[in-house]
Design goal:
This protein is globular. Strands 1, 2, 3, 4, 5 and 6 form a six-stranded parallel beta sheet that branches. The protein has one domain: Rossmann fold. The chain is an alpha/beta fold and 148 residues long. The protein binds flavin mononucleotide.
């Protein structure tokens, strides 16, 4: 079975809620995933996994959360060729750079050689209504894509 890792940052719980629903989706698809907070991870951990999901809220003016900064810098040192990956996160359309941290993670993973198997999933604040199922579907599809 593919080894899957989900790493996220969440200040007020919205990206955490997305992570939980995505994890549910992976498990519904028969997969298993290790879930970690970004502040507890260094980027070389990614080398132990076949499938990588990164989640982040957006901070400042379209910036990564502070707790992602070291990890993001360390990504420049790892070769992610052969890894399957996807990114997600919560933002707020009140801000000009909506959920821009998700794009920063997408671009960085692709630059390091990961195969981005899903379009980024960006939500406004917390997952509600159909968005909850969209998060589960994101996890299910990722689990399917990361096999083999
Ligand atoms: N959301 C965006 O989409 N773009 C931003 O540039 C942005 N900047 C923010 C700056 C500050 C100081 C704060 C408090 C929030 C900002 N947000 C921005 C909104 C958060 O990303 C949003 O509330 C998100 O749902 C928080 O996710 P979390 O609950 O996982 O922490």
């Amino acid at each position: 079975m593919s080894k899957l890792l989900l790493i996220y940052a969440s200040m007020t719980g919205n990206t955490e809620e997305m992570s939980e629903l995505i994890t549910n989706g992976i498990e519904q698809a028969g997969g298993e995933v290790t879930v970690k907070l970004v502040e507890d991870c260094s980027a070389d951990l990614l080398l132990d996994y076949d499938g990588i999901m990164l989640g982040a809220y957006t901070w400042g003016d379209g910036e990564l959360p502070d707790e992602y900064l070291d990890f993001y810098e360390e990504l420049d040192e790892v070769d992610l060729a052969g890894k399957k990956a996807a990114v997600f996160g919560s933002g707020d359309t009140v801000y000009e750079q909506f959920a821009k941290a998700v794009d920063l993670l997408q671009d960085k993973l692709a630059e390091r050689g990961a195969q981005m198997v899903l379009e980024p999933l960006k939500l406004e604040l917390n997952p509600s209504g159909d968005e909850r199922e969209a998060c589960r579907a994101f996890g299910k599809t990722f689990a399917g894509s990361a096999v083999g």
